[in-house]
Amino acid sequence: MAKRTPGAVKADAAAPETSRKPRARRAKTAPARGLGSYLTGQTLIAMPGLHDPRFAGSVVYLCAHNADGAMGLVLNQPLPGISFDDLVKQLKLEPHPPERRLRMRHGGPVETGRGFVLHSTDWSSDGSMRVTDGLALTASLDILQAVAGGGGPRQAVLALGYAGWGPGQLENEIQENSWLSVTADESLLFAEDTGQMWRQAMALLKVDPGLLSTVAGRA
């Protein structure tokens, strides 16, 4: 399997660097047309043959994919040991307890002390990067403050860490039958039940999980 953790930073999971802004600037997204095209805005579904324990059975939303590589958030791995209330208290946000809460996820093995909020585009700030017409990524503290105060975007999920691929790595893994891709579905991305998310993602493709070993790695 291709290495997905270049430059990983070890940090206290209870203190994500949410005040840092995403490195990428606002840009038009390349259309996702299947293998051979960039898949920004698509959802990756791990195939049963992907045995890497960090990604086995995972559902990943691709926030960026271009010639330089890819970046995504694992959305079906719960984040144990910390709640949104804990985070608000540690970051000294008000009010506490918060008037509204975000679901917390382990977003991947890279920069696990850094927080990323995937959310609907009805809310944005200078720290927001639009991924598609309906979804954006924000890594600045203002979104947590807005949510704690009862506002913020209509839909949102907070992930600590992310999954990253170098140039050509994701394309190779898809060719090796490690991933399927499907158009992102908001009800799936923001689902509360992470335990059923993989099967729900497969249902979007109308694929029988029992036949996955013979399915080519593209959708």
Verbal overview:
Strands 1, 2, 3, 4, 5, 6, 7, 8 and 9 form a nine-stranded mixed β-sheet that branches. The protein has helices at residues 84-90, 142-148, 169-175, 186-189, 197-205; strands spanning 42-46, 59-66, 69-74, 103-106, 110-120, 128-130, 135-138, 156-165, 179-183. The protein has one domain (42-206): VC0467-like (3-Layer(aba) Sandwich). Strand 2 and strand 3 form a beta hairpin. Mean pLDDT is 84; it is low at 1-36. The longest helix is centred in the last third of the chain and has 9 residues, at 197-205. It is α+β, with helices and mostly antiparallel strands and 219 residues long.
Q: How would you describe this structure in keywords?
A:
single chain; 219 residues; alpha+beta; VC0467-like; 9-stranded mixed beta sheet; 5 helices
Beta-strand content bin: 25-35%
* Class computed from helices, strands and strand pairing: alpha+beta
What is the CATH first-level class name?
A: Alpha Beta
Task: State the assembly state of the protein chains.
Answer: single chain
Main pleated-sheet profile: 9 strands, mixed
For the residues shown, what is the average pLDDT? 84
What CATH architecture would you give? Answer: 3-Layer(aba) Sandwich
- Written as H for each helix and E for each strand, in order along the chain, the element string is EEEHEEEEHEHEHH
**The number of domains:** 1
Roughly how much helix do the residues carry, as a percent range?
10-25%
Low-confidence stretches: 1-36
**Tally of DSSP helical segments:** 5
Number of strands: 9
CATH topology: VC0467-like
Q: Can you tell me the CATH superfamily? A: VC0467-like
Task: Give the termini separation.
Answer: 20 Å
Shape, per Cα inertia axes: globular
Whole-number radius of gyration? Answer: 17 Å
